[in-house]
Design a protein that fits this description.
With 126 residues, this protein is mainly beta. The chain is built from no helices and 11 strands. The strands form 2 sheets. Strands 2, 4, 5, 6, 9, 10 and 11 form a 7-stranded mixed sheet that branches.
């Protein structure tokens, strides 16, 4: 079992920045592709960004491309989401997740992820 704990959420004004962190424990973190998803009230959970287990490949939703950056530090068992130029529509609970299978390529589908954190709230005021 892989345990994930997010931190770094909060309230920020539009145009501001936040950096989310996700600390992993329980299994070999570096073997897993990781992702960030978000869920706004009344909406389905949606893909935000993903990074391969080695960190060499990343992918972003069109809505955040150029504004968000996903990265990982395998020595610290942590994945990050740097969020810049935040907009009110970025308001959501952000979830960190790990792919269900080790050594697999990153995925955009939440069905491919088996381990989830509890989420961290990000609120962007206008």
């Amino acid at each position: 079992q892989l345990q994930l704990v997010e931190s770094g959420g909060g309230l920020v004004q539009a145009g501001g920045s936040l950096r989310l962190s996700c600390a992993a424990s329980g299994r070999t973190f570096s073997n897993y592709a990781m992702g960030w998803f978000r869920q706004a009230p009344g909406k389905e959970r949606e893909f935000v960004a993903a990074i391969s287990w080695g960190g060499g490949t990343t992918y972003y939703a069109d809505s955040v491309k150029g504004h968000f950056t996903i990265s990982r530090d395998n020595a610290k068992n942590t994945v990050y989401l740097q969020m810049n130029s935040l907009k009110p529509e970025d308001t959501a609970v952000y979830f960190c997740t790990a792919h269900r299978v080790q050594w697999m390529a990153l995925s955009l589908s939440k069905d491919e992820y088996a381990y989830w954190g509890q989420g961290t709230q990000v609120t962007v005021s206008s």
